[in-house]
């Protein structure tokens, strides 16, 4: 793995205790809790604006075993306004906008997540697929249905965290300009 290259845009709130490895760009307004882990093993990760990455979340960019030989590794792009709840594990190669990954869910590295999707608490999605927009995966058997609209934005929670986290944790300083 290459050396660490962490780019934090102004307005992002990244706790010093988070584990960031590889080439990672963090968009403005994104909040990364302590003990979140983001590993760019296979290539760069670009995290969009206003994402919420909570405690114990693991976002890992790695190639599927059948693609290990490829020379051109794609960039993992995570869109805007995504919520990664406590202890979810995400290896998806591409994530759109306005998605919610609920607590303890797992998304494998052959699953592409489009926009407005919700992966329910404890659900495990590993089969190769591209999730349609506004898909909701839920329940013990990870059933799938289409939602009527996209999940709401976490604006109030983000505002509260942006005031509270700096009082109790050391924050990494932004190092890139918009």
What's the layout of helices and strands?
Layout: E1 5-8, E2 13-15, E3 19-21, E4 23-26, E5 31-32, E6 37-40, E7 45-47, E8 52-53, E9 58-61, E10 76-78, E11 83-84, E12 89-90, E13 94-95, E14 100-101, E15 106-107, E16 111-113, E17 118-119, E18 124-125, E19 129-131, E20 135-138, E21 143-146, H1 155-168, E22 171-172
Parallel strand pairs: 1-4, 2-5, 3-6, 4-7, 5-8, 6-9, 7-10, 8-11, 9-12, 10-13, 11-14, 12-15, 14-17, 15-18, 16-19, 17-20
Antiparallel strand pairs: 2-22, 20-21
Topology as a string of helices (H) and strands (E): EEEEEEEEEEEEEEEEEEEEEHE
Roughly what percent helix? under 10%
Number of helices: 1
Report Rg: 16 Å
**Helix/strand/pairing class, anyone?**
mainly beta
State the total count of DSSP E strands: 22
Q: How many angstroms separate the termini? A: 27 Å
Largest sheet: 9 strands, mixed
With strands numbered from the N-terminus, the spatial order across the biggest sheet is 21-20-17-14-11-8-5-2-22
Beta-strand proportion: 25-35%
Overall 3D shape? globular
Q: Low-confidence runs (pLDDT<50, min 5 residues)?
A: none
Residue-averaged pLDDT, rounded?
A: 92
């Amino acid at each position: 793995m290459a050396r660490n290259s962490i780019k934090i845009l102004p307005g992002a709130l990244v706790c010093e205790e988070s584990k960031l490895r590889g080439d990672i760009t963090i968009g403005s307004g994104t909040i990364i809790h302590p003990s979140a882990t983001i590993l760019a093993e296979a290539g760069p990760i670009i995290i969009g604006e206003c994402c919420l990455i909570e405690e114990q979340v693991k976002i890992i960019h790695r190639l599927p075993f059948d693609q290990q030989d490829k020379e051109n590794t794609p960039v993992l792009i995570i869109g805007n306004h995504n919520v990664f709840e406590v202890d979810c594990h995400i290896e998806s190669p591409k994530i759109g906008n306005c998605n919610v990954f609920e607590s303890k869910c797992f998304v494998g590295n052959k699953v592409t997540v489009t926009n407005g999707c919700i992966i329910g608490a404890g659900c495990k999605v590993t089969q190769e697929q591209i999730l349609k927009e506004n898909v909701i995966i839920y329940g013990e058997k990870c059933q799938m249905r289409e939602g009527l609209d996209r999940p709401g934005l976490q604006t109030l929670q983000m505002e509260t965290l942006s005031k509270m986290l700096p009082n109790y944790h050391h924050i990494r300083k932004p190092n890139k300009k918009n």
